[in-house]
Amino acid sequence: MPGLNEPSSRRVLMQGNIAAAEGAIRAGCRFFAGYPITPSSEIMVQMAKLLGSNDGRFIQMEDEIASICAVIGASGSGVKAMTATSGPGFSLMQEALGYGYFTETPMVLVNVQRAGPGTGQATHVGQGDVMQARYGTHGDVFPIALCPASVQEMYDLTIRAFNLSERFRVPTFVMADEAVGHLREPCALHGGFEIEHRNRHGEGAPFGSDAPDGVPPMPAFGDGKKLMVTGSTHNPEGFRKVDDPEIHDALVTRLMRKTEDHRGEIVEVEEFFLDDAEVAFFAYGISARTALAAARRLRKMGVRAGLLRTKTLWPFPEEAVAQLGRRVRAIVVPELNKGMFAGVCRAHAAAEVHSVTQTNGKTIEPGRLVTFVQEVLK
Amino acid sequence: MTRAMEKYLRGGLGGTAFCPGCGHGILLGALLRAVDRIGIHQDDLLFVSGIGCAAWIPSPNIGADTLHTLHGRAVAFATGAKIASPKMTTIVVSGDGDISSIGGNHLIHAARRDTDLTVICANNQIYGMTGGQTACTTPVGARTATDPAGNPHRPFDLCQLVIGAGARYAARYPITRPPMLVDAIEKAIRTPGFTFVEAISPCPTQFGRRNDTPDVGDLYEKVEALCIDRENAESMTFDERLKHFVIGEFRP
Question: What is the DSSP string of B171-188?
């Protein structure tokens, strides 16, 4: 299989979930812990295969809670680690994701979203976990969440997720969806990436930093640093400080700044036909492909439609959306939930924001968006 | 604790957070003596704990890598850490509620997988940190904050539980018999694969106070009086065994 050891620019037909696993290996992931769940299981199966032939460690845990905890433990041992899951598993992992955030543990989680809530429709597509990625765990957290719209991006953004996670010591999510995860299309397992590694041997306390980027060095277990890792409030050395108001505030604030002050480095958007657009879609994941098809059809019909596609869900592309709101008359947000990101758009865009929602386990048909825009512009 | 063990303690500590009469300090001493006997270098030791009083036995007290995790999940964290870094001697130390109630599933699966971990469960038979609620290890009839009239349910036999799941070594001793505890912990760490030591570590503050033994000395004497060697317990009925601490090595 190409790409397993040698990167190649040759494009081969591949499933999205497989591409995510290939990207993880390319990024240097050498540990996977997981629990089977549709529609993400292909990632786990592929990781079992790839880690076996790349000197990695794979373990099938007893549930999703154990899986994410094992990932955090492995990352603490200095190994790039990941898991993959879908809605119900993502829910089970939320407590530990907050722990991983508060202990500044690099890790990657691929969530292949299915139609929820509840067990929902396990084999059908949804985008209903996008707010959970941001607010799912308790307390103030500022994780990073990326959103692929193609098989190629399952590969590329999984690599990017590892890079960002290592760079900032922040748990990073690849918020895929069932449609992209199970899509088969050409994908190049290329090597055109710089690979980031955590600052393992740097000087300074492991849980505090005066550096401008606020990212402390992260020694591994066994490096002789006598680490104290705790999910309780801690000082820069790691000592629990559960009654000190200043230490708690300083810690929560520094962790926020790691993500919020680096929006320029983290946020990626892509523009289509926006130069003269009077109406624009704002979309992500599989729904962005629907929106692009609709924008093209509208252009052919003489409607000046465009698309702002975000590859980053969190931090939210506030600046790009605010700018879009100044450029167009109306923004249309198609998504496979009841309007989660339309609401976020409204908070940042001056233009009118229209929500197109679909929660039937199917992707939106471009024709529906074309008709919708025609109505908006009437 | 003898001064000889101080080399294993983290610098800058003013003392432990344990209540007067808590057994966890004795368990900490037993654990360090076992480590000292084996001669493991501190840089090769990883201690993983969950949430609760016993989770504070290693963290921050021991001068080695310590991973203080979520309630119930210490064994799962330790599994990932150990597999990713096999050179580390990885020891889980946590309480009965943490390891066997909220974390019970992780415990049995780690035993089944035979991951090379030593799990030391400090069993104080109650939820201490949160104010004396009934645990899955509370004896029948014992009074707790949530069972003021007495606990109606039977406690787990944790050693039998992990043996059923495949543990390579399982032993139970009270902190009133430190030499036996040191021996058991040493054997557990030396034995490859999943090993388990249950340390009966009474809680004067939450358990003793509610169960007619507010005095620490009385509580320790009561524990001693309830201890019975496994050989002598064989002739007992199941219900009689439940009223005692059956102590000894249960596997191998």
Answer: EEEETTSHHHHHHHHHHH
Q: Which domain holds residue A74?
A: 1-266
Q: What is the pLDDT of residue A4?
A: 54
| Set of chain A residues whose Cβ sits within 8 Å of the Cβ of B64 | 226
Same domain, A278 and A363: yes
CA distance B148 to B163: 33
Interface of A with B (CB under 8 A): 30-31, 33, 57, 59, 61-63, 65-67, 69-79, 81, 95-96, 99, 220-232, 238-240
Domain containing residue A48: CATH number: 3.40.50.970
Q: Any alpha helices (H) in A1-86, and if so which ranges?
A: 16-27, 41-52, 64-76
Put simply, the answer to whether A70 touches B64 (Cβ < 8 Å) is no
Please give the Cα distance from A240 to A169 (Å, whole number). 20
Distance in angstroms (rounded) separating the CA atoms of residues A316 and A260: 10
Domain limit, last residue, from A266, A281, A311: A266
The two structure tokens encoding residue B116: 């090379």
Of A30, A66, A76, the CB nearest to B81: A76
Q: Do A297 and A262 belong together in one domain?
A: no
CB atoms within 10 A of CB A329: 14
% of chain B exceeding 90 in pLDDT: 95
CATH classification at residue A310? 3.40.50.920
Asked if A63 contacts B105 with a C-beta cutoff of 8 angstroms, the reply is: yes
Q: How far off is chain A from B109, nearest CA to CA, in Å?
A: 7
> What is the sign of the dihedral through the CA atoms of B1, B3, B4 and B5?
positive
On whether both A23 and A108 belong to a single domain, the answer is yes
Domains of chain B: 19-251 (3.40.50.970)
Do residues A251 and A294 both lie within one domain? no
**ipTM exceeding cut-off 0.90 for this assembly:** yes
Q: Give me the total of CB pairs closer than 8 Å, taking one residue from chain A and one from chain B.
A: 128
Asked if A1 and A122 sit in the same domain, the reply is: yes
- The parts of chain A modelled with pLDDT lower than 70 are 1-5
Phi, psi angles (nearest 5°) of residue A91: -60, -45
Domain count for chain A: 2
